[in-house]
Design brief:
- By secondary structure, this protein is α+β, with helices and mostly antiparallel strands.
- It folds into three domains: 1-16 and 202-230, no CATH class; 32-200, no CATH class; 233-415, no CATH class.
- The protein contains 15 helices and twelve strands.
- The protein has helices spanning 2-18, 23-27, 33-44, 55-64, 116-125, 145-148, 167-182, 187-200, 206-216, 220-230, 233-257, 277-280, 340-346, 386-389, 394-415, and strands at 78-84, 90-97, 100-106, 133-137, 162-166, 266-268, 281-282, 287-288, 293-298, 308-316, 318-326, 363-366.
- It has a five-stranded mixed beta sheet. A five-stranded antiparallel beta sheet has the order 6-9-10-11-12.
- Helix 7 (167-182) packs antiparallel against helix 8 (187-200).
- The protein is globular and about 70 Å long.
Length: 419
Amino acid sequence: MDELYKRLMEHNTKVENAKTYNFFETTGILKRELTICRFIADLLDPEGNHKLGSVGLQTFMELVFEEENDADYYQNFMISVEYPLENGRRMDIVIEGNERFIPIEVKIDAKDQKNQCFDYLEFAKERDSEAQIIYLTKYGAKPSESSMCSDDEYACLNEEDIICISFEETIIEWLERMIQKTGNDLNGLLTQYKQALERMCGVMEQEEKNILTDYILSNEERLYTTLKVSQVIETAKCKLLYKVFEDLERAMDMFIEAPENKIYGLYKEEIENYYIYKNEIDFENGIYGNEPGINYVFGNISLKKRRQVWLRIACKDQFYVGILVIEPDSEALLVSSENRRVLREVANRIDLKNVDYEDDYWLWKFLPNGEIEYTDAVPDFDTMNRATIELANNEKRKIMVEKSMKVIREMLEEIMIEE
């Protein structure tokens, strides 16, 4: 195994050294949903800046719906970004034309909102009785149950109402087909986007596949060992995730017990048990639930209706720290940052100048780097990037925890308002 590791590291170093400038990775826009939606929408738009006519839309519909219409059929289609609904929501992308109305919901790292897909399809069906929602995620995940049901949960969408596609396969294939069809100056940009997506989704290069395949098949012992290892990969990932949480929890316990940190009034939340990591990580089946984490209550912040302000450390594939407002007596539990009355109440104790009005987390930062934009320095248990693999090393995991605690300490110093 050491020999294989050495060969893979040599290959990765060679690839890194040969890597050319990539606009999408350099600017960090791969994770900016609105920017990516605008880029995809322009490629789909027959009147887009690409000057390719309807080739992008035709190729996309051919791939997703297996349609065989010629380019002229799509020439009068309209593409919208952030299509507004009466309830204040906005559809990421809408394809509209020839009595068809097709919403595209894009999720890179953002969470589903309650009733989101249900509301979108209900709106779409008023304009196209055969409408379906295209749901685009990194790996083709399905929308959450809460997104697919009405507010009273008496009505829910069927699976056939949703077409799940992925950046990993669908969008990369779409870009490949467009590159083959266009052959113009846009190809360089499309190729950069395709390469950036492949790296974001952890798509393995062919040479790397060859190295691994040759090693595995070099003798029967290696093949046998590989087959056994493959059966516990997900369990190993879960155990590593659990270890990181244990280390973070120990560090937080020491932090809140320190006399100088008593001013925050933090204590561990152990009543609601909201997605705590000890309940969410399943070693036996090698899976972890929806954003496992650790919750801490600001005990010295009193709000109406028994509401609480929490500091939460969690992992939605990537680690982050955030501020939540919780209403224990509410079925939803989470209080949206769009609730202006609560916003004013919380603002007496927490500086909310950087509040995110479109998320359940009022403020948040990635760990361990403290940024709000994703970078490769953030461990990603989805793609298992280099930063994640290094966490198997005890010393490097210790450094990650120390850096995370520095971010948390600075975040608290920055946002807390003295009484």
